Amino acid sequence: MPNLDLVPLECRVLGCLLEKQLSTPDTYPLSMNTLVNACNQSSNRDPVLSATEPDVQATVAALIAKGFAEHWPGRVMKVAHTARPTWNLSVQEAALLAELLLRGPQTPGELRTNTRRMYVFPDLAEVEGCLAVLMEADPPLVTRLARAPGAREARVAHLLSGPPDAAACESPPSHPGRLDQLESEVSSLREELAELRQAFEAFKAQF
Predict the structure, then answer these.
(1) Are the CB atoms for 57 and 5 separated by under 8 Å?
(2) What are 15-64's pLDDT values in tens digits?
(3) pLDDT bracket for residue 143 (50, 70, 90)
């Protein structure tokens, strides 16, 4: 069983592998170049990074050593995660875990919005049910943080880097207005369109 002690870039790489398997399956497993670009995306990432290829290569090696990833040999070496078979994750659970790895603690409502490029949750009840499965895993993969004063919802955080630090637990979640929410949705739609174009180009290249 992999050790749950990932550093931030390991979380980003693993989150990208989970995300791309669900959002662009035709281009998965990922080449190193594609993985670097995924780590440094400006949308659907918090924080936005500028990781170099050597950084990502070293991180992949560390994830392989910890049992979270593997190389797929071929004309171009590719990288795949091992999280889904290791923890027997459903598509829904993998989408939630990927989102928490890519953007940090979020409310169930935010998770429902932000995961739709990977899986469309019909309602919050399904989100909560899948979060409950992740919380009850052995070892637990996510936890619900204490609700901040004045907040309407408690946020959820992943546990792949160990227990969340005090700052993450105490900082109040943001409450985006309607404009911020629309901007977030537009950003997600743009990302979905880019991924569809990438998948289409990969499909065309087969002929």
Answers:
(1) no
(2) 999 999 999 999 999 999 999 999 999 999 999 999 999 999 999 999 99
(3) very high
Give dist(CA 38, CA 17) in Å, integer: 9
Q: What SS3 class is residue 35?
A: helix
Q: Residue 121's closest CA among 145, 99, 154?
A: 99
Domains in the chain, start-ordered, CATH in brackets? 8-86 (1.10.10.10), 89-172 (1.10.10.10)
Q: How far is CA 101 from CA 14, 50, 131, 197, in A?
A: 8, 17, 14, 24
What predicted TM-score, i.e. pTM, was given to this entire model? Answer: 0.80
| Distance of alpha carbon 120 from alpha carbon 15, whole angstroms | 18
Q: What is the CB neighbour count within 10 angstroms for residue 93?
A: 23
Per-residue pLDDT tens digits for 51-105: 999 999 999 999 999 999 999 988 889 999 999 999 999 999 999 999 999 999 9
Cα four-point dihedral sign 168, 170, 171, 176: positive
Beta strands 69-72 and 78-81: pairing type? antiparallel
